[in-house]
Write a structure and sequence with these properties.
The complex is a heterodimer of chains A (about 550) and B (about 250). Chain A contains 22 helices and no strands. Chain A is mainly α and about 550 residues long. The radius of gyration of chain B is 18 Å and the shape is globular. Classes of the chains: A mainly alpha (about 550), B alpha/beta (about 250).
Chain lengths: ~550, ~250
């Protein structure tokens, strides 16, 4: 419930934000479009580019299949085993990869799955001669499963938690077996969301950059995003970068269209982790299978984290923290992340408020009717143009006019802001809707507005969502290697960039120390956000 | 703060295919109850009067002045909702004081006003309590206390006591009746309980399918057989009509 003046003001602000976003993204896309000179088009789409495209699709398909194939039984096992020690922690663990910088996770995975890692040592002990390679396709798959399987599992669990508790009571009264419960209840509830979840995972794998950069090896295991980076930073071949970026754009556009057709955005219920009344499956076989899977996956997720901690602690932190460049990287990273997070949350708030304000005017004012679909479109536009493509567009646009490396921080902040925006909106919009349903009419009828309203009503009500969104956006920006990989230089160094450099020069111990540092900062951010939310709940129920 | 007249002149809103159009006058300084089946437009009528919804065409007058395009805060109205009447993170005193000063800088005099209003609704000493620690009935009382300190001439009640038990609901209705008798506000009440309407209100308006079908004195209103839809709404069979005692 906004007053007329507020409604028009918020709509105007919303349109300004949309215009700005369209300008930033549009400029990059047009720069790419117009730098394809028509005469060498044929030469552009050569075998190298096709091979890269094929590999991109292959790894994304396999990663998606694997993630879903593990997530389905894992979600089922976790949903029907309501009581075991550490279940709550395991559910939290599933949320960790989302906030973890990919470069940190990659380092941990290399330590576990690498040639001298835990897994291969074990294989050798039981007499298997050929070790699993963490580099190349298998490594990329392991890393993508590490990141996406927990996400898919969480989404499937949320789906299973929507099953009304009467279903379970009925099932146990009717004495339905495992198979019947699965076929009649669990499968129908999960099936409807498989396409949407798989689409999401596929999208994330197609646009994944950091993991492929670190674990892919050579031209045989390179994705489009990494090839764009190599073309711009190593081969100085902007034409190839443009061709690759165009293919990536077409690919993501086709995917987004497909996802829109599937039209079931997977949603996580806020009640995740709360035990629903459910009777665990009986039978020794089922118990062994469930707990076996749970234990194996817990180990799969925990082991890289532990190894980051252990090898990070063994690194010479003392010396590392005396290096001026480390401190500069920390400061740059925090600065960029703070700016990007604040910008992202502010833009999201403006868009969310304008969408809310437009709602009662839909059908009456053309500007208002148009705004809601436009705002959703803008959010997809951000997904359409992955950070690397956006960066590449601006790189090509600016390289003839300014020193691209000198304006790196600005570009990185803009790219990180846009990158976080769809996620930030997803955190803020539901909270804002609930908040306005609780307080909107009340505030309007009491005439509370302006600063008073902000301090007295909106901040207390939305604080939790704001902090959560800010922490999330910061973590995303802190861990981002995409934009900085294109624009980074000796003058502008962020933590992930420094980490990449140290890995590149085989200073493994330094890399481990930096990874621990970066991982800890992101973890602390997530914990702070979680605490804030918790504090609020306690206060409410008091 | 004597009551003011409310008039709706063909105030129209469309919801998809359904259209709602009100053309009626609400009696000044009296209690009027709105009854009718769900979807009849009871809440929409209150929202139009309060300014939470604007009519697509037609006008709304309060005391003869056209308020159709005024914001809720600019109308001489207090409203008590079914729930979420209080800001859950603010204590009772602050919640009530918001009715006096939305900018919140309480003087000693304001505090006395708040305490007086709270004791008027039977909540002495509740100033520092949080809404979450109180029962639904107590929270409704706080909302009424706030309506008291606002001193607006019109009070809108949107099923505020629907969730309360019979005795508590009776107490609340009595409280509303007493306050109205004292302050002579114009009270407009939406209720799902026809017997509440009959016992509390001076007048009853029966709404059906988006318009006011009939208006009349509460006495004997529920026994009328000339109102299309009323018998069906009350769930009475035709042969019962006239044999049921007065409510």
């Amino acid at each position: 419930m906004l007053s007329r003046k507020q409604t028009y003001k918020s709509l105007a602000a919303g349109y300004c934000v949309l215009g700005g976003m369209a300008a930033v993204i549009g400029a990059a896309v047009f720069a790419l479009l117009f730098s394809v000179s028509s005469n060498d088009e044929a030469a552009l789409f050569n075998t190298y580019i096709w091979r890269v495209t094929r590999f991109t699709l292959l790894q994304a398909t396999l990663s998606t299949l694997l993630s879903i194939a593990i997530a389905l039984p894992l979600a089922r096992a976790l949903a029907r085993r309501q009581q075991f020690v550490g279940r709550k922690w395991l559910l939290r663990l599933l949320a960790v990869p989302i906030g973890l910088p990919p470069i940190v996770a990659a380092l941990g995975l290399i330590e576990i799955w690498g040639r001298q890692g835990l897994f291969n040592t074990g294989l050798q002990m039981i007499g298997v001669e050929n070790p699993v390679s963490i580099y190349g396709l298998s490594g990329i798959l392991i890393a993508h499963v590490f990141f996406n399987m927990p996400l898919a599992t969480r989404l499937f669990i949320a789906q299973l938690e929507r099953v009304p508790s009467e279903y379970w009571r009925n099932a146990s009264q009717l004495n339905l077996g495992h198979w019947a419960v699965f076929r009649l209840i669990e499968w129908p509830y999960m099936r409807s969301h498989i396409a949407g979840i798989a689409g999401l995972v596929f999208m994330l794998c197609v646009t994944s950059f950091t993991l492929v950069l670190l674990l892919g090896g050579g031209p045989a295991a390179t994705t489009i995003e990494v090839a764009i980076y190599q073309a711009l930073r190593f081969d100085f071949d902007p034409q190839r970068a443009v061709a690759l970026a165009m293919i990536q754009l077409l690919l993501t556009a086709a995917l987004l269209l497909l996802l829109a057709l599937i039209n079931r955005a997977p949603n996580e219920s806020p009640s995740l982790g709360q035990a629903t009344m459910r009777f665990p499956g009986k039978g020794t076989g089922a118990i062994i299978l469930d707990y076996g899977l749970i234990a194996a996956m817990a180990f799969f997720l925990v082991s890289p984290l532990v190894s980051i901690g252990v090898s990070g602690l063994m690194a010479d932190m003392d010396r590392l923290l005396r290096e001026p460049i480390v401190w500069r990287a920390i400061m740059t990273s925090l600065g960029i992340a703070t700016c990007a997070a604040v910008l992202s949350v502010s833009l999201a708030m403006i868009l969310v408020r304008a969408r809310y304000g437009a709602l009662p005017l839909v059908g009456r004012s053309r500007l208002a009717t148009l705004f809601r679909p436009l705002a959703s479109l803008a959010a997809s536009l951000v997904l359409l143009v992955p950070p690397i493509v956006l960066g590449a567009g601006w790189f090509i646009l600016l390289r003839r006019h300014v020193d691209v490396f000198s304006i790196a921080p600005v570009i990185v902040i803009i790219v990180n802001t846009l990158m976080a925006l769809p996620f930030v909106i997803r955190v803020i919009e539901p909270a804002h809707t609930t908040h306005m349903a609780r307080t909107g009419r009340l505030s309007a009828s009491l005439g509370i507005h302006g600063m008073t309203r902000l301090m007295l009503v909106d901040w207390p009500g939305l604080r939790r969502a704001f902090l959560l969104a800010t922490a999330f956006a910061m973590a995303l920006s802190l861990g981002d290697l995409g934009a900085i990989a294109l624009f980074g230089s000796q003058d502008v160094v962020t933590l992930p960039y420094l980490l990449l450099q140290r890995m590149g020069s085989y200073r493994t111990s330094d890399a481990a120390g930096l990874a621990l540092l970066l991982g800890l900062v992101c973890l602390i951010l997530m914990v702070i956000a979680d605490r804030q939310g918790h504090g609020e709940k306690v206060e409410r129920s008091a | 703060m004597t009551g003011q007249a409310i008039n709706l002149e063909n105030a129209t809103i469309h919801y998809g295919n359904a259209s709602i159009c009100f053309d009626l006058a609400i009696a000044t300084g009296a209690i009027t109850a709105l009854i009718g089946p769900s979807g009849a437009g009871k809440s929409t009528l209150l929202n139009l009067v309060a300014g939470f919804e604007q009519p697509e065409s037609g006008k709304i007058f309060i005391n003869g002045k056209d308020v159709s395009s005024k914001d809720p805060a600019d109308r001489p109205i207090s409203m008590v909702f079914q729930e979420n009447n209080l800001f859950a993170h603010l204590d009772i005193e602050t919640n009530v004081a918001l009715g006096i000063r939305p900018r919140l800088s309480l003087t000693a005099q304001d505090r006395i006003l708040v305490s007086t209003a709270l004791s008027r609704v039977g909540l002495d000493g509740f100033e520092k309590r949080m809404p979450g620690t109180m029962s639904g009935g107590e929270r409704s009382r706080v909302a009424i206390a706030r309506a008291l300190v606002r001193r607006k001439s019109i009070l809108l009640l949107d099923e505020p006591f629907a969730a309360l038990g019979p005795r508590l609901r009776g107490d609340m209705l009595e409280l509303v009746r007493a306050l109205q008798g004292e302050l002579k506000m114009t009270v407009l009440l939406v209720t799902h309980q026809p017997e509440d309407a009959a016992s509390l209100a001076d007048n009853i308006v029966f709404l059906d399918q988006g318009s006011a079908v009939a208006t009349g004195p509460a006495d004997g209103f529920l026994d009328r057989i000339d109102i299309p839809g009323l018998i069906d709404y009350l769930g009475r069979r035709n042969e019962d009509v006239g044999t049921t005692p007065n409510h």
